[in-house]
Amino acid sequence: MSTHGCEIVPPDAGKHRMxxxxxxxxxxxxxxxxxxxxxxxxxxxxxVLKSTQKIGFYQWTEKGYLFCSATIPVGACDQCxxxxxxxxxxxIIEEAVRRACTDQS
Length: 105
What we know:
Radius of gyration: 16 Å
Structural class: alpha+beta
Strand content: 35-45%
């Protein structure tokens, strides 16, 4: 389940700036491909723990800069801290941007 909220950002915010910030915390659990925890692709030592995080980001659209937030699943390595998200997370982010554009119509 995702939570979306967006607001317009002033046009002078900068055309190419992209900011992503965690806005909340979730409980961690191991991401798995089957019954085995995934190994970190970056350090190759740690286990990837999955949590749900609320993120905020600016997105340039035909309507100007929009600030959006979405709750997405994020994986984080328990050894090196590397964070990543998958296609499902990307779909939620894209939907948040589409909603923001629709809301500004």
